[in-house]
Amino acid sequence: MLNWRVILPFVLTGTIWGSTWFVITGQINGIPAAWSVFYRFALATPALFLVAFLTKRRLRLTRPEQMLAVLVGLFQFSGNFLFVYHAELYVTSGIVAMMFGLLMVPNALLAKVFIGERAQGRFWIGSAIAIVGVSLLLVHEWRANPDAGVVGGNVGLGIVLAMLGILAASFANVIQANPTGRGVPMVSLLAWAMLYGTIFDLGFAFVTAGPPPVPTAPSYWGGIVYLALIGSVVTFPLHYNLVREIGAGRTAYNSILTISVAMLISTLFEGYQWTALTASGMGLAVIGMVLALRSKQAR
After folding, report:
1. Residue 105 CA to chain centroid, in angstroms?
2. What's the pTM?
3. Chain segment 43-61, per-residue pLDDT in tens
4. Domain spans, the chain
């Protein structure tokens, strides 16, 4: 764990992914979220194919592998990101990031259904504590926006969208771990999945948001480049190499760093207000996640 090959990618991925939640807010300010998702992956897709080519990964997939890539693309690079971008229209980025820290819960449930993996009882205890903590944060968010305190209102809608994004990401995570997915180089699978997701994003954006806008602000396109190249192309290979170095259980601790960075940035730049309720919620969420992740590591 103290090797630079572990520490460097661990810190880089946690910090970068923690910052992307806030960068997304600049992508949805006056620009349809669906088009921003498309622009991000339209740039990231060829770059990821280039990474696969330069690292000499197999790019030709069999028919079952291509079908898997289609499903991963639709759920990970379309459903997940479309829901996340729209959720951040209503809920601060740090809270959405905190909610995604609970991704391990649907991951465990779906893994039991699709690939027969089981989590220990301590995992569910830790997860329950984390859910209580995140719930306290959401209560604060709800109280801070009294005009949105009805189901279907702003905060309520943001929470629902974030939960749908979590489910989409979880489904993609689990299905790529099946025997077909394990037979494909990860970079190659992600490149093809991203291509299929980008095609769907393009169609969805046209149908829901009309013709593509052409933003002129340099900050917007700077954000696109950062999210596409740094937040997607750089981090995914680092993350999966980290999984191979120290295992999926220890790598999952990266989510704690990601959440901490996201909440810090939200505090500094989005004016997130800390109270006894939010501090307690953050503490419980982190403690619960650590307990749950330690249990998964011990499986």
Report:
1. 14
2. 0.86
3. 999 999 999 999 899 999 9
4. 4-298
